[in-house]
Amino acid sequence: MSDPNKPSLSDKFKTTQFYRSVFRTGVPVASHRQRMMIMLNSVFLHLHPVRLPKHAVKVRYTWCMGGLSFFIFLVLTVTGILLMFYYRPTVEYAYGDVTDLSQQVPLGIMREIHRWGAHLMVITVWLHMFRVFMTGSYKPPREFNWVIGVVLLVLTMLMSFTGYLLPWDQLAIWAITVGSNMAGATPLAGMGGPGSSLLSIGDVNFITSTSDARFALIGGRFVGEGALLRFYVLHCIGLPFIMMIFMIVHFWRVRKDGGISGPT
Amino acid sequence: MERRDFIKWSAVGWAAFIAAVGGYGSMVLRFLFPNVLFEPVQTFHAGLPDDYEPRSVSERFKDQYGVWIVRDEEKIYALSTVCTHLGCTPNWLPADNKFKCPCHGSGFYTTGINFEGPAPRPLERFRIALSDEGDIIVDKTKKFQQEKGEWSDPESFILV
Fold first, then answer.
1. Chain B residues touching A92 at Cβ < 8 A
2. Which of A32, A191, A209, A229 maximizes the CB count within 10 A of its CB?
3. SS3 B130
C-alpha cells in the first residue's frame, strides 16, 4: 500500500518550474475558485465557459448548429491547406490539378471532404440561423450578434462563390461569368449599373469594362487568369481572415450576452 | 500642456491618421486595376470580305476575340458572342440557323435578334470597317445596340 500522504509522481511534476511556467495555476487544486482560474488562465480552456447552465447541453434546443458550423469551418481550413500543397491557380494547371487530387494523390478524398464540407457548412449555417430565429434568440441583448451572424452568412456564401471557380471546369467558369456579371450592375460603380453614365466628362466615360466593380472582382474583361488568381487569393486568405475576425466577435458576444441561449 | 493645445494637436493627429488611411485605401483600390491586361487586343483584322460566303456565320474569331462575322445578302457585320441575358457564350447551330445559349436557353437569329428564352435584348454588334488594303477591321471598343436604333449606323456594317 502506498502512503496517501506521500506526493505522487504527477504531484511532484506539477511543482517543477517547467509545469508552473506552462500552467499558471499551481497545485494543489483545493478550491472552486482555483478550478475556475485554471479555465480562465489558459488560452485554450478559456474558449469554453467556466460554468454551464443545465439547459446548455440540451441538444434538442440548440441543435448544436453553431458549434457544428465552426467545426466544419475548422475541417475546411485543414483540408483547404492540404489542397494548397497540390493546387496551382493557373488556367493551364488548375483543372488538371483538381483531377489529380481526386484520382492520383493518396487520400485525395481530402478534396471531396473539402467540397462536401463546404456544402454541409452552408446547410448548418442556415439551420443555425433558422434555430436562432425560431427560438427568438436574436432578441435583446443578442440583436447585435444576430447582425454579426448575418455578416458571417454572407461571408460563408462568398467563400462558396469564390471556391466554386477554382476547379476551373465549364460549370465553374460559366457560373462565375453569370455571378460576376451582377457586379457589373452595381449602381454608379458597375458598367451596366444605374447611374454609371453620370460619371463621365463629355465623351470620356470613367466607368468602363476595365475600370468598374466587375473588373475589380475578376481582374479582366472576362473570367480568365485574373479571375482565377483573384478568387484563389480571396478564397484562401482574404475571406477566411475577415471571417475569423467576425467569428471572434460572434463567440465573444455569445459569452458576454449571457452564454448559450436556452429556454427562458 | 494646455488643454487647448492637447485638443489642437490631437485634431492634427487624427486628421493625419485619417489622411494616411484614406491615402493608403485609395492606393489599394488603384492597385487592383492594372495598366496592362494579358487579354486579346480589342481591335483585329478579320481577313477579306470574299473570305465569307453570303448568308454565312463564321466562327473563326469566336474563341479568341468573342466575335461572329456574319454575312447576309448585302452586308457583313460583327456580332458579339456575349449573351445579353447573363453573359454566357451561345452556340451557333447551323441546322437550326440560330444562336442558342447553353446556360438558360436564349435563342437569337443570325441578325442577333432574340426570339426565345430569357434574353432581354438582341446581341450587340461591333464597329467594323475596311482598311486601305481592303481587309476587314473589327473594333470591339465601340458597340452598337439594336434597341437603341444603332444598327443603322454605317460604322456597324460594311456593304459587299
1. none
2. A191
3. strand
- Indicate if the pLDDT at residue A1 is higher than 60: no
Locate A103 and state its grid cell: 484520382
Residue of A182, A222, A223, A234 to mutate, testing the B interface (most B Cβ within 10 Å of its Cβ): A222
Distance CA A187, CA B50 (A): 45
d(CA B40, CA A19): 65
Residue B86: list chain A partners with CB under 8 A: 177-178, 181
ipTM of the complex: 0.84
CB-CB neighbors (< 8 A) of A220 in chain B = 37, 39
Cell 460572434, residue located: A250
**pTM confidence score:** 0.89
State pLDDT tens for residues B98-108.
999 999 999 99
Question: Residue A141: exposed, middle, or buried by beta-carbon count in 10 A (0-12, 13-18, 19+)?
Answer: exposed
Name the minimum distance, in Å, from the CA of B4 to any CA of chain A.
Answer: 37
pLDDT digit string (tens) for B132-160?
999 999 999 999 999 999 999 999 999 98
Buried b / exposed e along A62-75 (16+ C-beta atoms within 10 A): bebbbebbbebbeb
The secondary structure element, H or E, covering residue B126 is strand B125-130
The answer to whether A118 touches A109, Cβ cutoff 8 Å, is no
| Grid cell in block for residue A264 | 427562458
Calpha distance B145→B80 (Å, rounded): 10
Q: Rounded to 5, what percent of chain B is helix, strand, coil?
A: 30, 30, 45
